[in-house]
Amino acid sequence: MVDEGCSSCRNKFFLVVGLLAVGYYLNKDKEVTSCDGYNYDTLTSVEYKGDEIRHHIVVVTDLDQSSLLKTSKKPTWRSFIQAGTLVLKGDQVSVEWDENEHEIQSQFALGGRAMELSDLVVFDGKLLSIDDRTGIVYQITNDYKTVPWVFLNDGPGNTTKNLKGEWLAVKDCTLYAGGLGKEWTTTEGVFVNHNPMYVKKISRKGEVEHVRWVDEFIAVRKAAGVVDPGYMIHESVQWSEIHQKWFFLPRRVSKNEIYTEATDETKGSNTVITASVDFKTITVKEIGSKGNGARGFSAFQFVPNTNDELIVALKSEEKDGEPVGSYITVFNWKTGKILLEEKQLRGAYKFEGIVFAF
């Protein structure tokens, strides 16, 4: 004899399963992806003038402690945006900078510091930058106002410290934000934690996922011949949809020497590293000469319509913790050919972000 109660339970169970199955098939083609509703506006356009191809670019400063605007009645911090045009003419590249720079401001600060902007990116039709002092991701409007969008904290997301954000990249309609990509240490190189080796995945709605990239960053530096206690510091990372690879242009590379503040300023890099999405295939190439090691990559972008082969990059130089200057260069990462030798930007500033916009 069948238990009527159990029979009733089974019938309800199969009914629920059936309803779920019907619901799945009805909504199968309506699954939400990260690209649903994404705004693909690049905020820029290409101009053709004779045999010239002209791209609008903007760069942004990290003024460190000099970002405080001392003439303001209310505590206010600032950064400078410089606009210009990247001109391609055959194998020749030049840059034409606008005469005036734009000052952008914010009153959001942490520990009396703010607006130390470290990168620029166009994401979901908006121009964004990240403050490496507060962890705030800002939208920069076309009239050069700053609007706080997302706050990012350090490590796995359960810390009270801000993310020292150094780079921004877009992959699969998701914004990636990352820091130095090396272990956090004391000024003498003593290990503290792995927090700077986490990256943040941010949806177009501002939802944040904290992703551990310790193994990925270690794989990248090992491929470049870095062995303990050597290190690698990242300030410029991009994803190429065309090549389906991550690109790393490190700021500093020390093959085997421990990190110290005293020696770090001489470890500038001229290295381009590519990694497959699973980080199992990694290539390393040097572009030009690194000279005395004072200059290292602080930002880069792929030049539009070049099959992600031409790169425009910024390098920064510091001495005793003070900025000496920044330099712009253009090269073909595949062939190693340099189309624009390092050319200094105006002022003794650290320019740490570049993007094609406005």
Structure explained in plain terms:
There is one protein chain. The chain has 358 residues and is mostly beta strands. The chain has a single domain (37-356), classed as Apyrase (Neuraminidase). Helix content is 11%, strand content 43%. The protein is built from 3 helices and 26 strands. The protein has helices at residues 4-27, 214-223, 261-264, and strands spanning 46-49, 52-61, 77-89, 92-97, 102-106, 117-123, 126-131, 136-140, 146-151, 167-171, 174-178, 184-185, 191-193, 198-202, 208-212, 231-233, 237-240, 245-248, 252-254, 271-276, 282-286, 295-302, 310-319, 322-332, 338-344, 351-356. Strands 1, 2, 3, 4, 5 and 26 form a 6-stranded antiparallel sheet that branches. The longest helix has 24 residues, at 4-27. The protein is globular, with a radius of gyration of 23 Å. Mean pLDDT is 93; it is low at 1-6 and 9-30.
List keywords for this structure.
single chain; 358 residues; mainly beta; Neuraminidase; 6-stranded antiparallel β-sheet; 3 helices; 26 strands; 11% helix; 43% strand; globular
The biggest beta sheet reads: 6 strands, antiparallel
User: Going by CATH, what is the homologous superfamily?
Assistant: Apyrase
Query: What is the ordering of alpha helices and beta strands?
Result: HEEEEEEEEEEEEEEEHEEEEHEEEEEEE
Radius of gyration: 23 Å
Taking pLDDT < 50 over at least 5 consecutive residues as the criterion, the unreliable ranges are 1-6, 9-30
